[in-house]
């Protein structure tokens, strides 16, 4: 199996190294990741300037690794262009959960979605973070369990996996929690008195049982199967008639 590994935290993220190491248990790994952090870039692509890539073997201990001056989705597009017969794209492990509404702006999940657009399976992996540094060595067995559950399968094409900060070992299949948008804009002013704004995410409480948020909140690893099609089929049926 040939696996392209990417992320949105950048080539030097310890989460990327952890994922590349775990991916190498399943086959040939090529790492292609942004040269700087590209979190919350969603599925942006670079269309107004050229993109290039450079070998970036430091930290990757024998794995083929490259850094790209582009977005996570650029990395996937470039990787699938350069390397033939990629079977799977893994994205992460993101430092910070990508639950519920985060799906819309997450660069991590968008990279996996970009793979699916190109006809390749995509799996995004993220871990909740706290005040102390994330211990990826302690997370390794849980990453192994989650990958074991999904890597060998042919479907679904798109998966969003989230680990709690301290997993207890249970892996559950969940739905994406979409209730209301949890983004908040906080207005402040800088030392010169000029207005500026913080775009923040405030978790919605309580969580719905069976959802990705619920799983991670209760110490479980969450796996959410996803699709690309955003069509409102119920409305379409209604407007076009049900015949
Ligand atoms: Mn990130």
Short description:
The chain has about 240 residues and is an alpha/beta fold. It is about 25% helix and about 25% strand. α1 crosses α4 and α2 runs parallel beside α3.
Question: What is this structure's SSE topology?
Answer:
Elements: E1 2-6, H1 14-23, E2 28-34, E3 53-55, E4 64-68, H2 72-82, E5 88-95, H3 107-117, E6 121-127, H4 136-150, E7 158-163, E8 171-173, E9 183-189, E10 195-201, H5 212-217, E11 221-226, H6 233-240
Parallel strand pairs: 1-2, 1-5, 2-4, 5-6, 6-7, 8-11
Antiparallel strand pairs: 3-4, 7-11, 9-10
Helix pairs in contact: 1-4, 2-3
Task: Tell me about this structure.
With 243 residues, the chain is an alpha/beta fold. It has a single domain (2-177, 206-241), classed as 3-Layer(aba) Sandwich (Stationary-phase Survival Protein Sure Homolog, Chain: A). 25% of the residues lie in helices and 26% in strands. Helix 1 crosses helix 4 (136-150) and helix 2 (72-82) runs parallel beside helix 3. The chain starts with a strand and ends with a helix. The chain binds manganese (II) ion (MN). The site of manganese (II) ion (MN) has 8 residues, from strand 5 and helix 3.
Task: Name a few traits of the molecule.
243 residues; alpha/beta; Stationary-phase Survival Protein Sure Homolog, Chain: A; nine-stranded mixed beta sheet; two-stranded antiparallel ribbon; 6 helices; 25% helix; globular; binds manganese (II) ion
């Amino acid at each position: 199996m040939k696996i392209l590994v990417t992320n949105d935290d950048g080539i030097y993220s310890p989460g990327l190294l952890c994922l590349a190491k775990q991916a190498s248990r399943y086959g040939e790994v090529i790492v292609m990741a942004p040269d700087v952090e590209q979190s919350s870039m969603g599925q942006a692509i670079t269309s107004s300037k050229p993109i290039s890539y450079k070998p970036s073997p430091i930290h990757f201990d024998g794995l083929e690794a490259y850094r790209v001056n582009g977005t996570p989705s650029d990395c996937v597009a470039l990787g699938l262009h350069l390397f033939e017969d990629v079977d799977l794209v893994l994205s992460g492990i993101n430092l910070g959960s990508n639950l519920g509404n985060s799906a819309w702006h997450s660069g991590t999940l968008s990279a996996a979605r970009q793979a699916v657009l190109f006809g390749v399976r995509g799996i995004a992996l993220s871990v909740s973070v706290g005040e102390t540094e994330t211990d990826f060595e302690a997370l390794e067995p849980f990453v192994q369990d989650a990958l074991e559950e999904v890597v060998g399968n042919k479907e679904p094409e798109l998966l969003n996996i989230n680990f709690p900060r301290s997993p207890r070992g249970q892996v559950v299949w969940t739905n994406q929690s979409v209730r209301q948008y949890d983004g908040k804009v906080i207005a402040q002013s800088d030392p010169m008195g000029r207005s500026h704004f913080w775009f923040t995410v405030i978790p919605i409480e309580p969580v719905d049982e069976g959802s990705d948020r619920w799983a991670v909140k209760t110490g479980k690893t969450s796996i959410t199967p996803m699709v690309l099609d955003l069509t409102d089929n119920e409305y379409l049926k209604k407007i076009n008639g049900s015949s």
